[in-house]
Amino acid sequence: MLTGHSLLIKILDWREKHLSEKTFVFLLATAVGLLSGCGAFVLKRLISWVSHILTSHFRIGSGNYVLLLIPVAGIVLTGIFCRYVVKADLSDGTSRLIHDLKNKMYALKSYIVYSPILASTITLGFGGSAGSEGPIAYTGAAVGSNVARLFRLSPQMMMIMLGCGAGAGIAGIFKSPLGGALFTLEVLRMPMSTFSVLVLLVTSITAAMTAYLLSGCTVDIPFSHHAGFDIDTLPYVILLGIFCGFYSLYYSYMIKKVAKLLRCVGNSWIKNLIGGVMISALVFLFPPLYGEGYGTVGKIINDNFSTILNDSIFFGHSGGMWLLIFVAGGIALAKCVATSATNNGGGVSGNFAPSLFAGCIVGFFFAALLNEVFGLHLPVGEFAFYAMAGVMAGAIRAPLMAIFLTCEMGAAYSYFFPLVVTASVSFGIVRLFTADSFFSRHADRHNGLISIIKRHKMESAGGIQQQKGSD
């Protein structure tokens, strides 16, 4: 009788006789892409299903006080799942991958293949204000690592498969093949040869297409503007990039401050409760913060701005566009706090989707405010779309990934140029003030270009004074 072990031995023997290791890696990369794409699809559906069950009875025209309970329950349940079921800390998957790659720890545990999906479903389905990309990247990396270990690949090939699996997870969850590939290159910063980049592209394209086909060939945030970019708005797009850059500095600062606060809490139960209460309070005040927020984003970029007030205590109040601007400003200020409370209070989620959501709100706030104050006629929905790339580029410090991911998510290739401008300017503003990575634990240090120039001038002045003293 042929057992699983003996079948594996036969496959390995056949592979050694007929296929080179590199050719075999391409076949395994395709399999990892298929599995990661399926995992991304399943995670999206599970989150949507849980969220629908919990929110389908909400009243659109008033505040829903049950929001004060649902998110905190989700964080507590996630903490119970991690501590007592899988008995592992699954939070902040991207930071864990960066740590594992840096320390050459390529063999990930097999339970990571499924446990982040389940934990993230609880966190986000119950209203945690973050994204699903961190867990699915961790899952995809575990798929790649375990497939490589199963077929006894070398440590170097195992590293490539781990990185490709992580990129496949991002490609699948955003349906963005280039965004997934650039995640591995730009965020994980894996050293890659031409061969490994080709393997990464195969894996990412396979994952993105798998998720796209399983979801009925639909995109998450369809962008219905077809007129194309108006070059006359370019000066305002540059101003939007500057605004996104400064907001990104605030976003990153608050993310790390809240994380530092919650890390000071030693008791896991108390940490879950504090984080959950923070999320619940903010989600009750601003219901668009519930979950990943793609529904709100899709409506705003397609000019349905009233969605900002849905399910909230502000619904039905007079004030017109000024009320929308006021509420959008509050959401923009609160989003980073809610996201950090989710990720550091015991939730299992990611940071990329929150930066896209925050960018959409910031873009709406910027364009709507200029229109109201100066009587302009800026296309508010388009500016909200541009700012998604702007804030992601500045906050995550990954401009290329932000540009391609935003463009592919909305299938808006005719708007590639303003996305490039907004993301580049925003990233440049951030780099003027800090050179820190978003995934470093410390708060932003004074190590940006401006600080470097100031220190150089002070050192030069000190050297001149010393020289005069010696004369």
Automatic annotation (TrEMBL):
<feature type="transmembrane region" description="Helical">
    <location>
        <begin position="24"/>
        <end position="43"/>
    </location>
</feature>
<keyword id="KW-0813">Transport</keyword>
<dbReference type="InterPro" id="IPR050368">
    <property type="entry name" value="ClC-type_chloride_channel"/>
</dbReference>
<feature type="transmembrane region" description="Helical">
    <location>
        <begin position="63"/>
        <end position="86"/>
    </location>
</feature>
<dbReference type="Pfam" id="PF00654">
    <property type="entry name" value="Voltage_CLC"/>
</dbReference>
<feature type="transmembrane region" description="Helical">
    <location>
        <begin position="195"/>
        <end position="214"/>
    </location>
</feature>
<feature type="transmembrane region" description="Helical">
    <location>
        <begin position="412"/>
        <end position="433"/>
    </location>
</feature>
<feature type="transmembrane region" description="Helical">
    <location>
        <begin position="273"/>
        <end position="290"/>
    </location>
</feature>
<feature type="transmembrane region" description="Helical">
    <location>
        <begin position="106"/>
        <end position="126"/>
    </location>
</feature>
<dbReference type="InterPro" id="IPR014743">
    <property type="entry name" value="Cl-channel_core"/>
</dbReference>
<protein>
    <submittedName>
        <fullName>Chloride channel protein</fullName>
    </submittedName>
</protein>
<keyword id="KW-0868">Chloride</keyword>
<keyword id="KW-0812">Transmembrane</keyword>
<dbReference type="GO" id="GO:0034707">
    <property type="term" value="C:chloride channel complex"/>
</dbReference>
<keyword id="KW-0869">Chloride channel</keyword>
<feature type="transmembrane region" description="Helical">
    <location>
        <begin position="383"/>
        <end position="405"/>
    </location>
</feature>
<keyword id="KW-0472">Membrane</keyword>
<keyword id="KW-0406">Ion transport</keyword>
<keyword id="KW-1133">Transmembrane helix</keyword>
<keyword id="KW-0407">Ion channel</keyword>
<feature type="transmembrane region" description="Helical">
    <location>
        <begin position="156"/>
        <end position="174"/>
    </location>
</feature>
<feature type="transmembrane region" description="Helical">
    <location>
        <begin position="350"/>
        <end position="371"/>
    </location>
</feature>
<dbReference type="InterPro" id="IPR001807">
    <property type="entry name" value="ClC"/>
</dbReference>
<dbReference type="GO" id="GO:0005254">
    <property type="term" value="F:chloride channel activity"/>
</dbReference>
<feature type="transmembrane region" description="Helical">
    <location>
        <begin position="319"/>
        <end position="338"/>
    </location>
</feature>
<feature type="transmembrane region" description="Helical">
    <location>
        <begin position="234"/>
        <end position="253"/>
    </location>
</feature>
